[in-house]
Write a structure and sequence with these properties.
Layout lengths: L4 E4 L3 E7 L3 H6 L15 E6 L5 E10 L2 E7 L3 H12 L5 E4 L4 E6 L1 H7 L8 E4 L2 E5 L8 E6 L3 H7 L3 E2 L2 H11 L36 H9 L5 E10 L7 E4 L2 E8 L5 E5 L13 E3 L2 E5 L8
Parallel strand pairs: 1-11
Antiparallel strand pairs: 1-7, 2-5, 2-6, 3-4, 4-5, 7-10, 8-9, 9-10, 12-15, 12-17, 13-14, 14-15, 16-17
Amino acid sequence: MKITETCILGDRGVIYIKGADTREFLQNIITNNLDKVSDKQSIYSSLLTPQGKYLFDFIILKHKEGYLIDCEKTELENLMKILNLYKLRSKVELLNFSNEFVVASVSYEKFLSLENNQTPGFTFKYSEDPMILDPRNVNLGARLISSMEKIYLSLKNLNLKIIDQNIYYKKSFDLGIAQINCSKLKDKIFGIECNFEELNAIDFKKGCFVGQENTSRIKLRNKLHRRLLPLKIKEGNIVEGELIKFNNNEIGRILIHQPFPFAIIKVINPNLNDFIRKNLICGSAKIEITKPEWIKS
């Protein structure tokens, strides 16, 4: 995405959460540390099952006396249901703000032209609306969260041309970061296998969170033997759930097959540089595993 371009991410939903017990409530269940969140800092985080499996991922930012949660819109109602289950008698109010707020993506270069801070998650106000340098990876650029009434004027004042959101998601796929159809991952893989540590979604020093026991055990015992990785299809078509084989040995399974494919891949050797293989077989298709540059192992 060019410095002059923007994408309105119509597939993103926004939840507003507020109330006297909000900070303690969220801090006890999410994988990241809510104490990091301020008017100048936002975070990426997730909510796992008690066994540490993936349920939801989202961006959290400060808003007035509460927080905004930027999540995949198709999963918004499900996320609200789980949060309502956890809150019990806590003084917490959850509101669907998807009809009031919209999320727009801008390039990393555009963000730096407005604010010279390269810290992932750094947040500042543009025309009283938060602009966030993506807390997962700065190469994803930034996102402006604004009201429906203001967004087009703000983008015009920024001299930005609106382009297809799939250009942004193609960039995310090329970086190896899954953002579309993540519901396909639900309860199938551990959160840490989604590369959440490298994407700044887990704080192992914060204390308890839902699924912490298994997540910490995998890390401390060096048991991370599978990872969610993007695929390149070299020939044929793939199907969700299909096995991936190398020399007739199963090494993975397709979890998200479209529009941008991801699979859970066994990493016997923890050094991915020694593991990446070409011309793997997946049904009648030939595929290639790619390793994101931000995974250092």
